[in-house]
Amino acid sequence: MGRFRDALAAPGLGTIAEVKRRSPSAGDLRPDADPARLAAQFANAGAAAISILVDERFGGSLEDLRAARAATTAPLLAKGFFTEELDLLKLKVAGAEAALVILRDVDDQRAAALLSYAHELGIETLVEAHDANDLHRAVALGAEVIGVNARDLATFELDRGKQLELVARLRGHDAVVVAESGVHTRAQGAAAELAGADAVLVGSALMQAADPAAKLRELSSRPLVKVCGLTRPDDVDAAVEAGADMLGFILAEHSPRRAPGVLPVPDDRLSVAVFVGEAEEAGADLVQLYQREEGRVRGRDAVLLRAGEPVAYVVDLPWAEPDPLHLQRAAVREGRVMLAGRLGPDNVREAVRAVSPWAVDAASQLESEPGIKDHDKVRAFVAAAR
Question: Are strands 302-306 and 309-315 parallel, antiparallel or unpaired?
């Protein structure tokens, strides 16, 4: 275990914040980026580690790494195309804790030699995979930190679906898993987290932001906000515009908020299909499944499922009943908690303070009538939850 791996393995979703002036796919991002200033700002904004592009194709150099090292004690990852032992030695001398090894660029023998030499030097590695074959190689090499890149470095195309599928395959392995590329919103980070990623590496989204440190705080902030009981495209649009991360569609038979189906949701947010008793295929990113309870629309609590696997626990109120100990009950629940139960703009802030949930979920308190959202209340709820 090293400082880099330990930082990424800490509870919750870690972020590797990247300093890069340009990218071959997007061109100039921030030509005047000051690596020392950004590294210090990212560390203060809660980055688990900081990635520094040292390759000239990205407008970087070893000097950038030295400048960042002088400005922060946070773990530094050097990124570039490294294939020789001498590359790693230079990075170590310039202050890197870890170096990128891209499996597409080296065969197994070369990769094993680099990992062995890095270990001797006392420098960690982020071993990057792009496909199932790379993933198999990374595991066989005993890589302690595996990065799964959504971007194909040959075509520059992004495929987040394939990335998340590969991340999910690493569940149960000892390696720390990093989802690289394609994270521009909190929901995209959460999608990687729920697939099994320990951390996300974010570069372009930060470099293109007016305030990179504020963008980093935004991406890693919790709770996530879910607006549920949506039945109309207008209301979906309002929730997205307000900044909701998850959009919920109730498909339970007797609910007064039953939706016609899972409505279209932008691909930078997460859709959630809500069922009671038994889930069906609905084309949503996630499923929220309540138990059935005789004489009621639903049972009390639910599980949040991704590809059939439980990824969070929904702590709710009984149907149409209060519970004065609701928040205390949620606060002691371990793991990821989505807090639900008559939350609205007036009480969500207090609830977040009491419980520190992973997500908050509101439906009935944001309506003008069942299934019809009051857009002012939706905006107020998302703002208060933040």
Answer: antiparallel
